[in-house]
Structure formats: structure tokens, C-alpha cells
Amino acid sequence: MGTEAITHYSQSLDREMHMMIYGQGGVPFLAFPTQNSMCRNYEDFGMTGQLADYIDGSRLQLFVVDTVDIESWSNEGGDNAWRAERQEHYYHYIVDEVIPLMRAYNDALPVVTGLSLGANHAAIVFLRRPDLFRGIVALSGVYDSDYFFHGWMNPTLYENSPERFLPNLPADHPYVNLYNQKRMIFCVGQGAWEEDGVRTLRHLERIFQEKGIHAWCDFWGYDVNHDWPWWFKQMRYFIPYVVGEK
User: Fold this and answer.
1) How many Å from the N-terminal Cα to the C-terminal Cα in the chain?
2) Domain of residue 107, residue span
3) Number of separate domains in the chain
4) Distance of alpha carbon 189 from alpha carbon 228, whole angstroms
5) 95 Cβ contact partners less than 8 Å away, ≥ 6 residues apart
6) Could you tell me the mean pLDDT of each successive run of 10 residues in the chain, 246 residues long?
């Protein structure tokens, strides 16, 4: 498997950031790791091995980024305004710096994906900028800023809270039509540690239905836990749909 490690300075975050690239062609996937994790997360926990046939066969090229979760979403007890601003900086890092960097390797429109808190990041960037992506596969997210900020809100956090900004999206907003041109997949299990994921995805599903947004919200069984072995299976299951093989 072709692998490349990149270190680059982020203007948005004012710090060095890292990215791992797996493969040399195919549909590019921008991948967000699990909460507080960094760019080797997919490799360390075996996801790259699970997708080796796609990667080695040049059907999929995986770009895994670092996070700053420990400074933003996970920084409970910190200054909330600073935490929200740090998340906004991270959003701009992805949109303004990572996406152009990916295009230097693969100029096809990417899929965005993420696991656990990484699914939240995937949802934020996709729902704010659907023009940049061909689809989304979000697994086991908790789409509720209150879960992390305990009821606190300001305009910056609002922009990073799809469960808040989507209900206010006008019915004739051009993004509704743009969403419906994409492959949108949100999945959660109903087993251990998935309770908040189920609750928040049910809420997001209702918003999608009210807005006429054709997202696939899939709730797997009561034996499906918030853990890597199930994410392996879910990713293998959904990839053919999001890349257009089914």
C-alpha cells in the first residue's frame, strides 16, 4: 500500500498539522479520526487494512487528518467562546487548506467520512460546504453541540452545529438542491455507547425530512456497538453506494 506522511504549517490554526495519505488514485476520501485522535488513527486501529483492496486497487485514496478536539469539543471546563472559535479555525483549516492540498494529489471531488466525533466534523464541513464534496459517510456521530457545551451557544458555535442551523435553512435555499445531488449516509448502531448517537441522528433525520433533504439515515441493530469492528463492517457496506458502484 502506497503511504505518504505530510507535515505542513496551518495558517488557520497557527501550528503544524499532519496528514496521512494511503493509495494513489480512485475516489478521494477525506477522513476524520475518532475523538482526540490524529492522522494515524485509521492505520493504528486497522481501518486501512480493512480497505486495502480498495486502496491497492486504486478505487479509493484515503486522506486522514489530525484533529484539535482536545482544544475544542473535548475541552470541557475551558473558555467556551475560545473553544468555539478553535473549532471555527479547524473548519477553515479543512476547507481552505486541506481541500486544496488534496487536490494537488487527486482533483476528483472527495467523499468526506468520519467516526464518532469525526462524524460530527464530516457533517459540519459537508453541510456547510456541500459544493466541495461528492458525498458523506458519517458513522456513530453525536450531532448535538449541547452534548459538548451543555447548553452554551454563540454565533460561532451555531455555525458548527448542524442540528441548529439546518432547521433555519429556507426551503428554497440552493443548498437543499445541492444536498440532493450528493450521496448522504449517516449510520449509527443501537448497541453499547450508541444511545446519544441514536437520539441525535433521529433528530437530524426529522430535520432532513422536514427540509426535503434525501439523506440515508441508517440505524443498525441492538448488537451494534460504538467500536471499530462495527465501523469496519459499516464502511465496507456503504463505500460501494457512496462511490457509485451500486
Assistant:
1) 25
2) 3-242
3) 1
4) 12
5) 125, 128, 129, 132
6) 95 98 96 98 98 96 98 96 98 98 97 98 98 98 96 97 96 94 97 97 97 97 98 97 83
